[in-house]
Write a structure and sequence with these properties.
By secondary structure, the protein is an alpha/beta fold. It has 14 helices and 7 strands.
Length: about 325
């Protein structure tokens, strides 16, 4: 895509517009990566494990995307990687108001918790310590230091610099200087700290993560239905966002969280004991490794008896999600 930009806008954002991408849009390399990932998934779950069928079957396999077009772009090429001959497929999507894959559904309690987290002394001290870094970035990019969206955390700078890093593209420059690799790496470290603090380290993190993890309760329901033989689907693939994954990891109490990059994945695998069909176990993988957790009675979500997972969900969300409703309604103190 080649953008045509009027001169006033060009002069305002010229230091950031060294790109032919339009938000929201996956880059060519991102699409190639997604297709390769689809091929790899098929090689594991069909060729190695014979878990999914050779031919796509909607009674056994389900794909779902969020309302953000980026996830549909990824789904298209990922499915092509898994089933290259497939021409007709139904991909599920929830209404944008309640889309749990986007983690932005209405929840006043979550919004208030986020404000409380950003009002923590540790968070305010963090932003104060990084004033000089903000100043370096603003001076080069031309971003207004009074623009709150860019200065309540490093999210925007992280996004803009990380895609350049991943694609080996130059960082933004002005007439005098460019953002150096050292400054970019500092932004990445800061972004990781911020995500870790928001979703795991603040004393409000677990409440906030749970409030933004309604999708985890849906996963619990799907597993429960599968065990009760109420659902024929055996492979569900959901394509979401970094904040969705961060919320899930926070709700599962990951020991240390870094900003989830493109292609990050959480896999929930349900196992049944061969000689005891009523005994089930759950393994949760994050980027290919068993998820390490700070929960004292678990340590790792690796072949955990399913009753322990169910008990944790009931304790965290309620048996019918009522605790999540309490949090969203501000009843959490």
């Amino acid at each position: 895509m080649q953008n045509e930009i009027s001169e006033p806008l060009l002069s305002l954002y010229k230091n950031f517009l060294n790109t032919t991408c339009q938000l929201p849009q996956i880059t060519d390399e991102g699409l190639k990566n997604s297709q390769t990932h689809g091929k790899d998934l098929f090689s594991v779950y069909h060729e190695l494990l014979n878990f999914i069928p050779k031919e796509y079957d909607s009674n056994l396999i389900s794909f779902r995307v969020s309302t953000n077009p980026i996830t549909s772009q990824v789904a298209g090429v990922l499915i092509k990687g898994m089933y290259p001959g497939l021409r007709d497929i139904s991909v599920k999507m929830q209404h944008d108001v309640i889309d749990t894959l986007n983690s932005n559904y209405p929840c006043g309690g979550a919004d208030n918790l986020r404000k409380e987290i950003e009002n923590d002394e540790a968070w305010k001290n963090h932003l104060n310590e990084k004033k000089e870094l903000f100043q370096k970035l603003d001076n080069i990019t031309g971003i207004d230091p009074l623009n709150k969206e860019w200065h309540t955390w490093f999210d925007h700078y992280f996004d803009n610099l990380s895609f350049r890093f991943c694609h080996d593209l130059p960082y933004p420059c002005n007439k005098e200087a460019c953002i150096s690799s050292e400054v970019a790496l500092e932004v990445f470290d800061v972004g990781n700290w911020e995500y870790n603090y928001i979703y795991t380290k603040s004393n409000k993190s677990i409440l906030y993560s749970v409030a933004r993890s309604l999708f985890l309760f849906e996963v619990f329901q799907n597993i429960q239905n599968k065990i009760m033989k109420l659902d024929s689907i055996k492979y569900r693939h959901n394509i979401a966002h970094d904040n969705t994954i961060a919320s899930l990891l926070g709700a599962l109490q990951i020991t240390n969280l870094k900003w989830p990059g493109l292609g990050s994945e959480i896999v929930f695998e349900l196992y049944r004991k061969e000689n005891n069909p009523d005994m089930f176990f759950l393994r949760i993988l994050y980027n290919g490794e068993p998820l390490q957790t700070s929960l004292k009675n678990i340590n790792s979500w690796d072949m955990v008896p399913i009753d322990i997972f169910f008990q944790y969900i009931h304790t965290t969300f309620g048996t019918k999600g009522e605790i999540l409703n309490y949090i969203c309604n501000g009843i959490y103190h």
